[in-house]
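Running this now, will post back.
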Amino acid sequence: MLCLALGWTISIALLCLIQSGDLPHLGVSGIDKYVHFGMHFVYTLLWSYYFSVLHAVATIKKIVFIAISSLLYGILLELAQEYFTTTRHADILDVMANGTGALTALCLIALVLKVRQK
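Update: finished.
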């Protein structure tokens, strides 16, 4: 499970830092925001699952920490796009999509944990 979470984390960085001309064009307006949402949704799910297996219990506090780490990772990548690439630029809407994906995963996990407690 650690390999999957780490692999996903590295994949996000690679996708965010490759030249924009190398990315496929799907012809859907705003598709990149959905991609950012999905990347950070899955990031939060994978790392939450990894830590719940590692520690045998998932707590909301741990999941919140993971969701925040997802948001911070997304911000770091946006800054890297701005300062270390020539074809990519930081976008606050990408950061918002990242945070929305992480928050949605957090809410889903919290719901699952609540249902399991009953």
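Residues 60 and 110 are 7 Å apart (CA to CA). More later if anyone needs it.
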